[in-house]
Design brief:
Layout (H helix, E strand, L loop, with lengths): L11 H28 L6 H33 L10 H12 L5 E9 L1 H8 L1 H19 L4 E6 L2 E7 L3 H16 L3 E3 L2 E3 L2 E9 L7 H17 L5 E3 L2 H23 L3 E9 L5 E9 L10 H11 L2 H16 L6 E5 L2 H5 L3 H12 L6 E6 H6 L1 H13 L3 E7 L6 H7 L3 E4 L1 H7 L3 H16 L3 E4 L5 H10 L3 E2 L10 H20 L1
Helix pairs in contact: 1-2, 4-5, 5-6, 8-9, 10-12, 12-14, 16-17
Length: about 500
């Protein structure tokens, strides 16, 4: 068995302690030699001291060489990512400042992997590390020898290029990477679907910015790529900063509004397609803002989702809606839940607490989810929905016809209700293809034992169309708009009085 000799490598502490220890030993030897010198009456100690000094000097030279090698290795490690061996964030700043000295354009791309957290959650961190290495290699191949690649940490990468048309070239490399990520990658024998959102920023001779600012701008642009649908490249624009500042302001306002109880609920009735009776209500969140600029749910709910405030806000909506609906006889209550709530492992627990504390019958509660909620993380969503169903709560698929749900998708999640999106209803009124799609959707729902609701019905013609097509319930302005809880009380009282009169007659 042979052993290969390895060069001496010391830690930084060793670089100090070893020479010190040797110095102490050699000094002790020298003192002992001098002492013996006196005892033995040797005439001159010079030869012995000279030899000691020579040995000590030789050792210092050897240790000095080892120290230089160690320091170089430490310097190299400080500028490299330990997993991928790519340069790290520190190296990026050094390179950007160096490239800027040439006076030419410097372009930086920040690449953030989409859905990487789900990979770690489903398959473990070991496979996640392998995926990181695989994606790092894909980035290096896309950039070739022109741009330098970096791993900044987690699932964030970067690429830097300098030159006259650096931005254009770097954008092309990023699009090449996105094309490759459009196909699932094979890691440890598994097909893993992972995408990327990319932000681009440039520094020019006319508008030179430091490396930290360049990285910040690319990060802002990357965030806009994610907000815009992911799997895309976005160049930084000055308006993004104003937009992000406004988002932060809205986030602060939402936090304050939750504490102050500013939010309110409105309820839009759903009627029976045959006789027009109110059979259910959908809770809709509203934010009365007084003299401040009005904000619709399409504006503040995405902000709440991104900030995590959707969890306390959604919890308030659920509890308030259940408390209001307790007095509405056997009426079904529909409440929308977001993708962020579905991903929150505490959501089913909080739901159970609300049902138990209020005594609301679970079979009267219907939670509405969209296709996007489920496609983002189907494994977690399926697990959460199974727990919710165990309470006796029903699940409805909202906005059907706008996404990418397949027959297998519908069978997998076993919804109790399908809600046809208003856009499909509008198109079906004047387009044969859309009408055929609507009819086939209703037939599919029937085959899977789902009830069907048509949303956004605004005309008698649309109502007649969906009624003839076989919808069970209709929701839209033709019948009722969203109303305060007190108005729902009045409508239900009138409906009950009418039915009582008809029964008496």
């Amino acid at each position: 068995m042979s052993h290969t000799a390895k060069p001496l490598r010391l830690t930084p502490v060793g670089l100090v302690l070893v020479p010190l220890a040797l110095a102490c030993v050699i000094t002790g030897v020298a003192v002992l030699a001098v002492s013996l010198n006196h005892r033995l009456a040797i005439v001159s100690p010079a030869p012995l001291l000279t030899a000691t000094i020579l040995v000590y000097s030789a050792l210092l030279i050897l240790l000095g060489r080892s120290a230089v090698a160690n320091l170089r290795e430490l310097e190299s490690l400080s500028l490299r990512d330990t997993l991928t061996r790519l340069p790290n964030r520190c190296a990026l700043h050094v390179d950007v400042e160096r490239l800027a000295e040439s006076g030419e354009e410097v372009a930086l791309a920040l690449i953030d992997l989409d859905s990487f957290k789900q990979v770690n959650d489903h398959y473990g961190h070991a496979l996640g590390d392998q995926l990181i290495e695989h994606c790092a290699q894909m980035l290096v191949e896309a950039c070739g020898n022109e741009a330098r690649c970096y791993r900044l940490g987690g699932d964030e990468f970067a690429a830097v290029l300098g030159g006259k048309v650096a931005g254009t070239i770097l954008e092309g490399m990023c699009r090449t990477l996105l094309e490759r990520l459009a196909t699932p990658v094979t890691v440890a024998g598994r097909q893993i679907a992972v995408g990327a959102s990319i932000g681009l920023a440039r520094s020019t001779a006319e508008h030179r910015v430091p490396s930290s600012e360049l990285l910040r701008r690319s990060d802002v642009a990357m965030y806009m790529s994610k907000r815009g649908g992911k799997m895309r490249c976005t160049w930084f624009n000055e308006t993004f900063d104003r937009s992000r500042e406004r988002v932060r302001e809205i986030e602060d306002e939402i936090r304050t509004a939750i504490a102050a109880g500013e939010f309110a609920l409105a309820y839009q009735p759903l009627v029976d397609a045959e006789d027009g009776r109110i059979v259910a209500v959908e809770a809709l969140l509203r934010w009365p803002r007084g003299e401040r600029m009005p904000l619709g749910p399409n504006v503040f709910i995405p902000v709440a989702e991104d900030s995590g405030l959707i969890n306390p806000l959604g919890q308030w909506v659920l509890r308030q809606a259940v408390c209001d609906a307790l007095r509405w006889d056997d009426m079904t209550l529909s409440v929308n839940i977001s993708a962020a709530q579905l991903r929150n492992p505490e959501f089913p627990i909080k739901l159970g607490e609300v049902l138990e504390e209020t005594g609301f019958p679970p079979h009267r509660l219907e939670l509405e989810v969209t296709e996007t909620c489920l496609v983002l993380d189907p494994v977690v969503a399926e697990r959460t929905l199974d727990v919710i169903r165990a309470f006796g709560v029903r699940i409805a698929l909202d906005d059907f016809g706008t996404g990418y749900a397949s027959i297998g998708f519908l069978r997998r999640f076993s919804f109790e209700k399908l809600k046809l999106d208003r856009s499909l209803i509008e198109l079906a009124s004047g387009d044969e293809g859309s009408r055929a799609m609507m009819l086939s959707s209703i037939a599919l729902a029937r085959a899977l034992n789902m009830s069907v609701t048509a949303e956004g019905v605004e005309t008698e013609a649309q109502a007649e169309l969906v009624r003839m097509a076989g919808c069970d319930q209709i929701q839209g302005w033709l019948y009722h708009r969203a109303l305060p809880a007190a108005e729902i009380d009045r409508l239900i009282a009138e409906q009950n009085a009418k039915r009582a009169g008809e029964a008496a007659a």
